[in-house]
Amino acid sequence: MKILVINAGSSSLKYQLIDMDEKKVLAKGLCERIGIEGSRLNHTPAGCDKVVIESPMPSHADAIKLVIDALVDKNHGVIGSMAEIGAVGHRVVHGGESFSGSVIIDEEVKKALRDCIELAPLHNPANIIGIEACEKVMPGVKQVGVFDTAFHQTMPEEAYLYGIPYKYYEKYKIRRYGFHGTSHNYVSGKAAEMLGKDIKDLKIVTCHLGNGSSVTAVKNGKVIDTTMGLTPLAGILMGTRSGDIDPAIVTFLMEKENLDIEGINKVLNKESGVFGVSGVSSDFRDLSSAAEEGNKRANAALKMFSYGIKKYIGSYAAAMGGVDAIVFTAGVGENDSQTRADIINGLEFLGIKIDSEKNKLRGKAIDVSASDATVKTLVIPTDEEMMIALETELLVK
Ligand code: AMP
Questions:
Q1: Which atom of ligand 1 is nearest to the CA of 209?
Q2: Does residue 63 form part of some domain?
Q3: Each residue of 71-109: pLDDT tens digit?
Q4: What is the distance in A from the centroid of ligand 1 to the CA of 239?
Q5: Strands (DSSP E) along the chain, which ranges?
Q6: N or C terminus: fewer CB in 10 A for the chain?
Q7: Domain co-membership, 217 together with 307
Q8: What percent of the chain has pLDDT over 90?
Q9: Are 216 and 334 within one domain?
Q10: Percent of the chain's residues with pLDDT above 70
Q11: Which residues have CB under 6 Å of ligand 1?
């Protein structure tokens, strides 16, 4: 079966066509500037050069039509006809409390997704538009929703409730949801495979460290806690997001800087994090170069990032009553060996220790633990698209 994986944003749409029998990506691409002048499709068939198709895309349905045309094109296409697409898997950011797993999309599911818009106003509307665009262009093809929040729905209430009046949980569903669930799910499963153990017998801390970052405690295959909260702004310091701060800073800054809601949201989401602290960049490669050249704020930002993650590893080890493996994934987690070393350094008392030579390798799943470590440290490239495709296949079969 061939599955089309769609990740729709408000003006963009990423896709991958995956052959599930071979577990192989046949083509992938990105539609940019949907609904804006100058829209184009970047389409890359596996093993070939990128093809850029400039064409108007007034709506997401037009973008999907172009994607299908590119997939069946006689020059750069990878399938004979649209009929070869067995199902579509959609990344959906917020499933609220309605979804603890992936689902086949029907009218009831779409209603529940609309009910979650309040919780993810930037993401869910685009995800729904992506689903409806596929329904229009590919009538009759099964569509599956895979949620960033679903894997985290196993958290107990002591982990997901906030210390604010309970009525706000009841009234507005304010609670910790957690994000990057598809990635945490994928890498924790891979970690169990690498260790040759049943995930039900493992306590794993997964560190998804990219532009957005989150750390999750996966005990016996189930999430018991995670750093992101009601929104993906919470938790550890990120590229441009603040992560956890004293909540009183919000009203203090609003008053002092005369900021409205949009203004403070911009400060915390776009102007904070390692970018805001360093004043250099949100990219860890730029930060490392600046720190090496003696930039003190870049150095402070990097130290804050590693320190925050180290603290969560310790606290999640305590929350799970021990830890068997630490997993690093995503852009920073997979590539930045120095940051991995900075995080792990000092955790020897928990049996966590890495081999500095193995830690230099990158680009593949690898065990970087020292030979005398009692806890494994693994680097595992994440693959959210493959996970979405696997979930989709499971449901439609
Ligand atoms: P992601 O959000 O998972 O795509 O991760 C993106 C981030 O990964 C970038 O902003 C970089 O900071 C980081 N990154 C990517 N490659 C490297 C690298 N070779 N060394 C350090 N950081 C990297």
A1: 3
A2: yes
A3: 999 999 999 999 999 999 999 999 999 999 999 999 999
A4: 10
A5: 2-8, 13-19, 24-32, 40-45, 51-54, 85-92, 103-104, 142-147, 203-209, 213-219, 222-226, 325-329, 366-367, 376-379
A6: C
A7: yes
A8: 95
A9: yes
A10: 100
A11: 210-211, 239, 282-285, 330-332, 335-336
